[in-house]
Amino acid sequence: MTQTVELPLWLFLLIVVFAAVTFASHFLFPSVRWFFRRRLERAVKRLNERLQRPIQPFKLARRHDMIQRLIYDPQVGQAVRDFAREERVPEAVAFETARRYAREIVPSFSAVAYFSFAIRLARVLSNAFYNVRLSYMDESSLKDIDPDSTVVFVMNHRSNMDYVLVTYLAAQQSALSYAVGEWARVWPLSRLIRAMGAYFIRRKSGSDLYRQVLACYVRHATEAGVTQAMFPEGGLSLTGALGRPKLGLIKYIIDATSPKGRDVVFVPVALNYDRVLEDTILTKAALGNERRFRARIGVITWWILKQIGRRLTGRYQRFGVASVRYGKPISLQAFRSEHEDNLMTDLARALIGGIGAAIPLVPVPATCWLVREMGEIPEAEALTLIERLLRRNGNPEPMDRTAVEAGIQQLVDRRILVRSSGKISSSGQRVDLLEYYAASAPLDAEQVLAASAKEVSASAGS
């Protein structure tokens, strides 16, 4: 036992390294993790005191533990057996497939990253790009939502900035858990979105095993009261108009609830922009039959560098107004009692209807709508009419003429409109963008004629 053993230097160093790793993994790392975990728990406790809806423990669970809960859930277990039988593969292979799906779905939420970095970056980006406006259709109803209920924000999907904008505006309420599709994996926004705790989903997966794993995650999150956000349209609007709802996630949420259990309250959130950053990409994609489109990293990087250069040289201008409006909440328990026969379809229609009723009007879509419907129009008349329409749309702070003039100037600079003899009209060069923005305006001919008639009578009276 006391004899000297000679070892090569490289083997001795290797043994020392293994010993150090073993010591650290068994003694040092657990203590360090416990120390930081305790600090995080205290920080989250202080944070929950100022949030309207506290962060649920489920959202703070370790990602590994959440994955284990999913793959060992009885619902997923049955799906694994069915998958193995149908595909004629061993159950171990089917189980590993379910584990891969769970890793793909389960988010990696960090309260520190969300509230110390992501929220600040979202605020900086939102205010750097847009003049942000927030309004409510029924603010008192939002404040009266049962604190024990699960809140799900349902939004129209116009741009990848939707994630950033709504996260920034909802920062005082809670941490949102987004359901996002493949298109949201665009660098660099995908990094920010992941830091916000989003879970990526496959919009058109033909695998029943994948759908069962996803349904299981949504069920656990809903039962735990996690505040969620989803886009019922299932993808970005290629036309600017509000699309038809997809039923997948809505079905999973309905299946996760019972008439006497925790209530789910859906809050419609409507967004509209003077300029959608991806408008050219979207309108081009609308011409094809394939929705799968990706912006190249080089193009995005060049665009960002160009905006930075404009800011450094004093030529940078924001892209106009970005407006967000909260609609009237819909309680699932109350809705279930009135629509038992066709609950899922009726709820989807009600959610899309709630979003449509809340869509705010902003200057660029209003201008494009007028030009599309009326053709050539005197600019002074257009300015006055748009101001009146903006006031009628329920904006809490009426936009001044400067915002409307900036919107028209932006359309002229982008060669969507042209000025001639004091009138504005379509340039004929970018008709697709004119149609895209006109479709996003919540206007109808009767509304415009009524506003125009009031303007004429007011002018005659003066």
Secondary-structure blueprint:
Layout: H1 9-48, H2 57-60, H3 63-71, H4 74-87, H5 91-105, H6 111-129, E1 131-136, H7 139-143, E2 150-155, H8 161-169, E3 177-180, H9 189-195, E4 199-200, H10 208-223, E5 228-230, H11 248-255, E6 264-273, H12 279-286, H13 297-312, E7 321-326, E8 330-331, H14 332-338, H15 343-358, H16 363-374, E9 377-378, H17 379-392, H18 401-413, E10 417-420, E11 423-426, H19 431-439, H20 445-461
Parallel strand pairs: 1-7, 2-5, 2-6, 3-4, 3-5
Antiparallel strand pairs: 6-7, 6-8, 9-11, 10-11
Explain the overall architecture.
The chain is built from 20 helices and eleven strands. The mean pLDDT is 81. The chain has helices at 9-48, 57-60, 63-71, 74-87, 91-105, 111-129, 139-143, 161-169, 189-195, 208-223, 248-255, 279-286, 297-312, 332-338, 343-358, 363-374, 379-392, 401-413, 431-439, 445-461, and strands at 131-136, 150-155, 177-180, 199-200, 228-230, 264-273, 321-326, 330-331, 377-378, 417-420, 423-426. A hairpin with a 2-residue loop joins strand 10 and strand 11. The chain is globular, with a radius of gyration of 26 Å. Strands 1, 2, 3, 4, 5, 6, 7 and 8 form an eight-stranded mixed beta sheet that branches. The protein has a three-stranded antiparallel beta sheet with strand order 9-11-10. The chain has two domains: 104-358, 3-Layer(aba) Sandwich (Glycerol-3-phosphate (1)-acyltransferase); 363-461, Arc Repressor Mutant, subunit A. The chain has 462 residues and is of the alpha/beta class. Helices cover 56% and strands 11% of the residues. Helix 4 packs antiparallel against helix 10, helix 5 (91-105) crosses helix 10 and helix 16 packs across helix 19 (431-439).
